[in-house]
Amino acid sequence: FGSVLRLENFCLLMAVLFGLQYADRSLGPVLSLHVEALGVSASRVAVLSGVLFSLAAGAAALGHHLCGRLTRRVSARGIIVAGAGLAAVGSVGLVVSWNVGLLALSLALFGVGIGAGMTAAYTAAGLVVPQGSHGTAFGLLTGASLTGMALTPIFTGILAIASIRAVFVLDVVALGLLAIVVRRWMTSPKQA
To answer: What pLDDT is attached to residue 191?
Structure first.
């Protein structure tokens, strides 16, 4: 257990997965409220919110796919930085959105960034984990991701009391910091 945590970039990658998952799941508790605040009629909020969730999820799947192709030319570090940055830009769009079109575009950017960043983080971790430690490493990485998923509704609910847009402002800050920290401190992994 301890030997896995001491692997190159491993704790940083756990933080990356926690942060990306936190931002990704922050949409759940507030997206319908945000759609309604944009002036969408109550009878259309549920359907439109579902479509927008699906758009974000589909964009994340596209990000996962693109990451596979990008890793042939770009380092995992570069993809994580770009993914977190793109997701932060999408979050800025969520903060300033005044109509559903801008909201949809922002969710697409956000999703692609989250998808690419998460896949690159798992890829980078896989490069440094020795053969006999894959189960432990995967458990720790998944635990970090699931912790982000579990804590998001609590913090999002508290922030939404102040403002729905405050949820997205926190995402902008967290994703921007994540990109800066990875750019500054993540090293190029040496394979296990």
So the answer is: 55
